[in-house]
Amino acid sequence: QLQLQESGPGLVKPSETLSLTCTVSGGSISSSSYYWGWIRQPPGKGLEWIGSIYYSGSTYYNPSLKSRVTISVDTSKNQFSLKLSSVTAADTAVYYCARHIPSPPGIAAAGTPWGAFDIWGQGTMVTVSS
Amino acid sequence: AIQLTQSPSSLSASVGDRVTITCRASQGISSALAWYQQKPGKAPKLLIYDASSLESGVPSRFSGSGSGTDFTLTISSLQPEDFATYYCQQFNSYPTITFGQGTRLEIK
N or C terminus: which one in chain A shows less Cβ crowding within 10 Å? Predict the structure, then answer.
């Protein structure tokens, strides 16, 4: 079955760039049905959507993070990646990658290509500290 | 941006109880809502998608309802494994996605 696995440094210095990769196994990231996303969760707090990507490279970002976020896809490696620049302690969180299921017609606003997140990675803790 | 407000923020209940958690959207979101369960140290698990569709493998004691701005997650008879934190999430305001603040369900 499809599995997602996050990887990357667990410690990043303030002002530097956080880089994580999500490897998809048991299925193809190039499936036309699915979008792929990043979500984070600061310690003891709730979930925050960071952004999502389609295999074609189309990206969508949380407006509050947009100026610092880049999400990319490498279909040859069945991976997608997250870069978050100029990090501060507020970016300390567990970072999850996840797959969107499609949104059937009539469920969401016209043109919405994605739905809920049905498969999640286990998450990776990233601490921002000097 | 669409805000989601869950109530209550925390809840104490006993095994066998019927429990309802509410999620209210700041504007109409059709049926573009999902519910997740999260246990400590684990990734969220999808329970309900498209407001009322039960994810495969999820026990039938979980159900979702609502459309527009008001949604509910109901657990018909609480089991010990159901004590967790629950989140709603909307995906109507393409291209942005938001989560509710969470509801912590504790054992009474």
Answer: N
Q: Are strands A18-25 and A3-7 parallel, antiparallel or unpaired?
A: antiparallel
Say yes or no for a CB contact (<8 Å) between B50 and A115.
yes
How far is B30 from chain A, CA to nearest CA, in Å?
6
Instruction: For chain A, give the percent of residues with pLDDT over 90.
Output: 88
Option in A114, A118, A121 nearest B91 (CB):
A114
Residue B49: which of A109, A116, A121 has the nearest Cβ? A116
Residue type at position B75: I
Sign, Cα dihedral of B97, B55, B80, B66: positive
* pLDDT tens digit sequence for B17-76: 999 999 999 999 999 999 999 999 999 999 999 999 999 999 999 999 999 999 999 999
Question: How far is residue A54's CA from residue A34's CA, in Å, rounded to a whole number?
Answer: 7
* Radius of gyration of chain B, Cα coordinates, nearest whole angstrom: 13
